[in-house]
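TL;DR need C-alpha coordinates for one chain.
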Amino acid sequence: MTPAHDDRLWLNAYIDGELDPAHALEFEQRLAADPALAAAHARMTALRGAIRDRVPRERASPLLRRRVAALARPRPAPGWRALAASVAAAFVAGSALTYIALGRCGSAPVAQDVVASHMRALMASQPIEVASSDRHTVKPWFNGKLPESPRVVDLAAQGFPLVGGRIDVIGLTPTPTLVYRRRLHVISLTALPSKLGAARPRAIDGYNIVDWTDGNLTYWAVSDLSAPELEDFARAFRAGEAEP
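>> reply
TL;DR here they are.
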Protein backbone atom coordinates (compact mmCIF):
# COMPACT_ATOMS: atom_id res chain seq x y z
CA MET A 1 0.00 0.00 0.00
CA THR A 2 1.48 3.34 -1.05
CA PRO A 3 0.25 6.35 1.03
CA ALA A 4 -0.12 8.65 -1.99
CA HIS A 5 -2.12 11.31 -0.15
CA ASP A 6 -2.89 11.36 3.55
CA ASP A 7 -2.97 8.59 6.10
CA ARG A 8 -6.37 10.04 7.03
CA LEU A 9 -7.75 8.89 3.66
CA TRP A 10 -6.52 5.35 4.24
CA LEU A 11 -7.92 5.48 7.75
CA ASN A 12 -11.37 6.47 6.47
CA ALA A 13 -11.26 3.74 3.85
CA TYR A 14 -10.25 1.18 6.51
CA ILE A 15 -13.04 2.18 8.89
CA ASP A 16 -15.59 2.17 6.04
CA GLY A 17 -14.53 -1.35 5.06
CA GLU A 18 -13.44 -0.23 1.61
CA LEU A 19 -9.96 -1.79 1.66
CA ASP A 20 -9.43 -5.24 0.19
CA PRO A 21 -8.22 -7.92 2.64
CA ALA A 22 -4.53 -7.52 1.71
CA HIS A 23 -4.53 -3.75 2.12
CA ALA A 24 -6.63 -3.97 5.29
CA LEU A 25 -4.09 -6.37 6.83
CA GLU A 26 -1.20 -4.10 5.84
CA PHE A 27 -2.97 -1.05 7.28
CA GLU A 28 -3.63 -2.92 10.55
CA GLN A 29 0.10 -3.58 10.77
CA ARG A 30 0.74 0.15 10.31
CA LEU A 31 -1.78 0.90 13.06
CA ALA A 32 0.08 -1.41 15.42
CA ALA A 33 3.41 0.26 14.61
CA ASP A 34 2.27 3.92 14.56
CA PRO A 35 0.88 5.24 17.89
CA ALA A 36 -0.26 8.53 16.31
CA LEU A 37 -2.17 6.71 13.58
CA ALA A 38 -3.69 4.35 16.14
CA ALA A 39 -4.79 7.34 18.23
CA ALA A 40 -6.43 8.90 15.18
CA HIS A 41 -8.23 5.60 14.53
CA ALA A 42 -9.50 5.51 18.12
CA ARG A 43 -10.73 9.12 17.94
CA MET A 44 -12.56 8.60 14.67
CA THR A 45 -14.16 5.36 15.86
CA ALA A 46 -15.30 7.08 19.06
CA LEU A 47 -16.65 10.02 17.08
CA ARG A 48 -18.74 7.79 14.86
CA GLY A 49 -20.10 5.95 17.87
CA ALA A 50 -20.98 9.21 19.61
CA ILE A 51 -22.80 10.54 16.56
CA ARG A 52 -24.71 7.29 16.20
CA ASP A 53 -25.70 7.26 19.87
CA ARG A 54 -26.39 10.97 20.41
CA VAL A 55 -28.12 12.04 17.21
CA PRO A 56 -31.80 11.18 17.63
CA ARG A 57 -33.76 9.49 14.89
CA GLU A 58 -36.81 11.45 13.88
CA ARG A 59 -40.14 9.63 14.19
CA ALA A 60 -43.44 10.71 12.74
CA SER A 61 -45.74 12.33 15.28
CA PRO A 62 -49.16 10.74 16.06
CA LEU A 63 -50.84 13.71 14.35
CA LEU A 64 -48.84 13.17 11.16
CA ARG A 65 -49.62 9.44 11.16
CA ARG A 66 -53.33 10.18 11.53
CA ARG A 67 -53.19 12.62 8.63
CA VAL A 68 -51.40 10.10 6.42
CA ALA A 69 -53.97 7.44 7.30
CA ALA A 70 -56.77 9.88 6.51
CA LEU A 71 -55.24 10.65 3.12
CA ALA A 72 -55.18 6.92 2.35
CA ARG A 73 -58.95 6.61 2.70
CA PRO A 74 -60.85 6.77 -0.61
CA ARG A 75 -62.74 10.02 -1.10
CA PRO A 76 -65.08 11.27 -3.77
CA ALA A 77 -63.47 13.39 -6.47
CA PRO A 78 -63.74 17.08 -5.50
CA GLY A 79 -65.43 19.65 -7.68
CA TRP A 80 -63.43 22.36 -9.38
CA ARG A 81 -64.23 24.91 -6.63
CA ALA A 82 -62.91 22.61 -3.90
CA LEU A 83 -59.87 21.76 -6.01
CA ALA A 84 -59.05 25.45 -6.52
CA ALA A 85 -59.39 26.09 -2.78
CA SER A 86 -57.06 23.20 -2.01
CA VAL A 87 -54.42 24.47 -4.42
CA ALA A 88 -54.61 27.95 -2.88
CA ALA A 89 -54.32 26.56 0.64
CA ALA A 90 -51.33 24.42 -0.35
CA PHE A 91 -49.62 27.45 -1.90
CA VAL A 92 -50.11 29.53 1.26
CA ALA A 93 -48.92 26.71 3.51
CA GLY A 94 -45.87 26.06 1.35
CA SER A 95 -44.94 29.73 1.36
CA ALA A 96 -45.26 29.88 5.14
CA LEU A 97 -43.08 26.79 5.60
CA THR A 98 -40.45 28.21 3.24
CA TYR A 99 -40.40 31.45 5.23
CA ILE A 100 -40.02 29.56 8.51
CA ALA A 101 -37.26 27.33 7.10
CA LEU A 102 -35.27 30.25 5.73
CA GLY A 103 -35.67 32.11 8.99
CA ARG A 104 -34.36 29.17 10.98
CA CYS A 105 -31.37 28.75 8.68
CA GLY A 106 -30.55 32.42 9.00
CA SER A 107 -30.61 32.26 12.78
CA ALA A 108 -28.81 28.90 13.10
CA PRO A 109 -25.27 29.15 14.49
CA VAL A 110 -23.05 29.09 11.44
CA ALA A 111 -20.12 27.78 13.47
CA GLN A 112 -21.99 24.56 14.24
CA ASP A 113 -22.84 24.08 10.56
CA VAL A 114 -19.21 24.56 9.55
CA VAL A 115 -17.99 22.08 12.17
CA ALA A 116 -20.70 19.60 11.15
CA SER A 117 -19.56 19.82 7.50
CA HIS A 118 -15.97 19.17 8.61
CA MET A 119 -17.10 16.12 10.61
CA ARG A 120 -19.15 14.75 7.70
CA ALA A 121 -16.12 15.10 5.43
CA LEU A 122 -13.92 13.18 7.89
CA MET A 123 -16.48 10.39 8.03
CA ALA A 124 -16.61 10.11 4.22
CA SER A 125 -14.23 7.89 2.29
CA GLN A 126 -12.39 11.08 1.26
CA PRO A 127 -12.70 14.61 2.74
CA ILE A 128 -12.22 16.16 -0.71
CA GLU A 129 -13.88 16.24 -4.14
CA VAL A 130 -10.87 17.49 -6.08
CA ALA A 131 -7.58 15.99 -4.90
CA SER A 132 -4.57 18.12 -5.71
CA SER A 133 -1.73 19.94 -3.99
CA ASP A 134 -1.53 22.37 -6.92
CA ARG A 135 -3.45 25.61 -6.34
CA HIS A 136 -3.53 26.12 -10.13
CA THR A 137 -5.73 23.00 -10.25
CA VAL A 138 -7.89 23.56 -7.17
CA LYS A 139 -8.98 27.16 -7.77
CA PRO A 140 -10.18 26.60 -11.39
CA TRP A 141 -12.18 23.60 -10.16
CA PHE A 142 -14.46 25.97 -8.21
CA ASN A 143 -14.97 28.28 -11.21
CA GLY A 144 -18.35 27.71 -12.83
CA LYS A 145 -19.63 25.76 -9.83
CA LEU A 146 -19.91 28.71 -7.43
CA PRO A 147 -20.47 32.47 -7.84
CA GLU A 148 -17.12 33.25 -6.20
CA SER A 149 -13.97 31.23 -5.70
CA PRO A 150 -11.87 31.50 -2.54
CA ARG A 151 -8.25 32.54 -2.25
CA VAL A 152 -6.00 29.53 -2.71
CA VAL A 153 -2.61 29.79 -1.02
CA ASP A 154 0.28 27.34 -1.24
CA LEU A 155 1.38 26.74 2.37
CA ALA A 156 3.52 23.64 1.90
CA ALA A 157 6.64 25.56 2.92
CA GLN A 158 4.92 26.56 6.19
CA GLY A 159 4.04 22.92 6.96
CA PHE A 160 0.39 23.10 5.83
CA PRO A 161 0.27 21.39 2.41
CA LEU A 162 -2.84 21.79 0.28
CA VAL A 163 -4.76 18.52 -0.19
CA GLY A 164 -7.66 19.66 -2.38
CA GLY A 165 -11.13 21.10 -2.08
CA ARG A 166 -14.83 20.37 -1.91
CA ILE A 167 -18.20 22.14 -1.89
CA ASP A 168 -20.17 22.24 1.37
CA VAL A 169 -23.69 23.54 1.97
CA ILE A 170 -23.97 25.97 4.90
CA GLY A 171 -27.42 27.43 5.64
CA LEU A 172 -28.72 26.36 2.19
CA THR A 173 -25.75 28.16 0.57
CA PRO A 174 -23.19 26.14 -1.47
CA THR A 175 -19.77 27.22 -0.25
CA PRO A 176 -16.18 26.44 -1.28
CA THR A 177 -13.99 24.60 1.21
CA LEU A 178 -10.24 24.22 0.85
CA VAL A 179 -8.61 21.26 2.59
CA TYR A 180 -5.13 21.48 4.08
CA ARG A 181 -3.12 19.02 6.17
CA ARG A 182 -0.85 19.22 9.20
CA ARG A 183 0.72 15.84 9.88
CA LEU A 184 -2.34 13.57 10.44
CA HIS A 185 -4.68 16.52 11.05
CA VAL A 186 -7.11 17.75 8.38
CA ILE A 187 -7.95 21.46 8.19
CA SER A 188 -11.18 22.56 6.49
CA LEU A 189 -11.14 26.20 5.35
CA THR A 190 -14.62 27.34 4.29
CA ALA A 191 -15.30 30.70 2.62
CA LEU A 192 -18.73 32.16 3.44
CA PRO A 193 -20.40 35.49 2.62
CA SER A 194 -19.47 38.01 5.31
CA LYS A 195 -23.14 38.80 5.90
CA LEU A 196 -23.50 35.44 7.68
CA GLY A 197 -21.36 36.81 10.49
CA ALA A 198 -18.30 35.64 12.36
CA ALA A 199 -17.80 32.78 14.78
CA ARG A 200 -18.83 33.01 18.41
CA PRO A 201 -17.34 29.80 19.90
CA ARG A 202 -13.65 29.07 19.46
CA ALA A 203 -14.20 25.31 19.78
CA ILE A 204 -17.09 22.88 19.33
CA ASP A 205 -16.98 19.19 20.31
CA GLY A 206 -13.17 19.19 20.38
CA TYR A 207 -12.74 21.01 17.06
CA ASN A 208 -11.04 24.41 17.13
CA ILE A 209 -12.33 27.31 15.05
CA VAL A 210 -10.55 30.39 13.68
CA ASP A 211 -12.31 32.94 11.46
CA TRP A 212 -11.36 36.16 9.71
CA THR A 213 -12.90 38.43 7.06
CA ASP A 214 -11.30 39.28 3.73
CA GLY A 215 -13.44 41.58 1.58
CA ASN A 216 -16.92 40.15 1.23
CA LEU A 217 -15.89 36.67 2.40
CA THR A 218 -15.36 35.30 5.89
CA TYR A 219 -12.96 32.35 6.13
CA TRP A 220 -13.61 29.66 8.74
CA ALA A 221 -10.79 27.26 9.61
CA VAL A 222 -11.85 24.10 11.49
CA SER A 223 -9.63 21.27 12.70
CA ASP A 224 -8.78 19.04 15.66
CA LEU A 225 -5.35 20.62 15.40
CA SER A 226 -4.29 22.50 18.54
CA ALA A 227 -5.58 26.07 18.80
CA PRO A 228 -2.10 27.68 18.58
CA GLU A 229 -1.22 25.70 15.43
CA LEU A 230 -4.57 26.54 13.84
CA GLU A 231 -3.86 30.21 14.57
CA ASP A 232 -0.47 29.75 12.89
CA PHE A 233 -2.26 28.34 9.85
CA ALA A 234 -4.64 31.29 9.73
CA ARG A 235 -1.78 33.79 9.93
CA ALA A 236 0.15 31.96 7.21
CA PHE A 237 -2.90 31.89 4.94
CA ARG A 238 -3.64 35.59 5.41
CA ALA A 239 -0.02 36.49 4.70
CA GLY A 240 0.38 34.09 1.78
CA GLU A 241 0.28 34.93 -1.88
CA ALA A 242 -3.02 33.88 -3.42
CA GLU A 243 -3.54 32.27 -6.78
CA PRO A 244 -4.65 35.08 -9.17
